[in-house]
């Protein structure tokens, strides 16, 4: 059997066919490999257009926050803190032992530290983008 490697014309469309065999392998190795997504949105009272929010995924006792976006004009009014408070409550309700996320040097590391997150890993590279910080907050008292 010969295999060819080609660049996908539509990277988004290629995601699921690539992901499916890995998901099947994970499922056979450890079971229950389907993560459960969670999302909060930020909208205006009179406009349902999503302006920001939080997207996360729980899997195997871990709660990964992939996106946190607060519109620039809404920052400094506690909305980011409220997104994170609700995400933590959801993580606890799902019996997750920790929350983890990543952020770049130019993004929100101090914000997450004020909420109790600690750096557990770092990738260095050229400034101003790097370093990239991997952060977690333990929820299990460890």
Topology:
Layout: H1 11-30, E1 36-44, E2 47-59, E3 62-69, H2 79-93, E4 98-104, H3 109-114, E5 118-123, E6 132-138
Parallel strand pairs: 3-4
Antiparallel strand pairs: 1-2, 2-3, 4-6, 5-6
Summarize the structure.
The protein is of the alpha+beta class and 142 residues long. The chain has three helices and six strands. It has a single domain (33-138), classed as Gcn5-related N-acetyltransferase (GNAT) (Aminopeptidase, 3-Layer(aba) Sandwich), CATH 3.40.630.30.
Task: Write a structural description.
There is one protein chain. This protein has 142 residues and is an alpha+beta fold. The protein has one domain: Aminopeptidase (3-Layer(aba) Sandwich). The chain has three helices and six strands, in the order H-E-E-E-H-E-H-E-E. The protein has helices spanning 11-30, 79-93, 109-114; strands at residues 36-44, 47-59, 62-69, 98-104, 118-123, 132-138. A six-stranded mixed sheet has the order 1-2-3-4-6-5. Strand 5 (118-123) and strand 6 (132-138) form a beta hairpin. The protein is globular and about 60 Å long. The chain starts with 10 loop residues before the first helix and ends with a strand. The relative contact order is 0.12. The mean pLDDT is 94.
Features:
142 residues, alpha+beta, Aminopeptidase, six-stranded mixed sheet, 3 helices
